């Protein structure tokens, strides 16, 4: 059975950047499982998986426009520090969910001053060319339960590697 919309797919993957630096891998873990054709992976990877069969192994290079997008300096936002006054200490590099007009967004603290906090709303893989080594492990029809919208997310995150779940494996 080949990979097509509304089929459950299991893959093993290794994700590297264009310089060959390892970003993430399912090696030593259970295969990554997702519902195909429902936006659970980044578009460039999902398109390359379409039509593949169990046992297929291949390498996919995904450009930023088909992955997490180009890096956008406009997503560096300075916020009044008092908006972070929840008693927890702030540190550069901390990640958290912020509510925006477009919905929740993961942001990373870039700079902290006495009065402001600068956050970056870019995905950590934005602007990067991604190289995936993929092995298709299994493909099957999805159950009715798996096709329900609240159940169609990914089974586990892979560090934003594959891009599912707003940064899971797809």
Automatic annotation (TrEMBL):
Q: Which GO BP terms sit in this record?
A: protein refolding
**Cellular component GO terms, alphabetically?**
cytoplasm
Under Gene3D superfamilies, the record lists: 3.10.50.40
A Pfam family assignment: FKBP_C
User: Keywords in UniProt for this one?
Assistant: Chaperone, Cytoplasm, Isomerase, Rotamase
Q: Which residues cross the membrane?
A: none
EC number(s): the record gives 5.2.1.8
Residues in PPIase FKBP-type domain copies: 6-82
Q: Is this entry keyworded Chaperone?
A: yes
Q: Which residues form a coiled coil?
A: none
Role description: Also involved in hydrogenase metallocenter assembly, probably by participating in the nickel insertion step. This function in hydrogenase biosynthesis requires chaperone activity and the presence of the metal-binding domain, but not PPIase activity.
What name appears for this protein in its UniProt entry? Peptidyl-prolyl cis-trans isomerase
* Native source species: Treponema socranskii subsp. socranskii VPI DR56BR1116 = ATCC 35536
């Amino acid at each position: 059975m080949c990979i097509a919309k509304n089929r459950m797919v299991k893959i093993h993957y290794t994700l590297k950047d264009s310089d060959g630096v390892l970003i993430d891998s399912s090696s030593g873990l259970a295969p990554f499982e997702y519902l195909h054709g429902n936006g659970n992976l980044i578009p460039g990877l999902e398109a390359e998986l379409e039509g593949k069969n169990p046992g297929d192994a291949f390498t996919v290079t995904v450009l930023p426009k088909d992955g997490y997008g180009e890096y956008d300096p406009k997503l560096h936002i300075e916020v009044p520090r008092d908006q972070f006054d929840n008693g927890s200490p702030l540190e550069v590099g901390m990640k958290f969910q912020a509510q925006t007009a477009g919905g929740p967004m993961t942001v990373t603290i870039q700079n902290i001053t006495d009065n402001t906090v600068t956050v970056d709303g870019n995905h950590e893989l934005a602007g990067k060319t991604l190289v995936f080594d993929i092995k298709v492990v299994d493909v099957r029809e999805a159950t009715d339960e798996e096709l329900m919208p609240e159940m169609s997310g990914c089974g586990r995150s892979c560090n934003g590697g594959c891009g599912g779940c707003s940064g899971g494996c797809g």
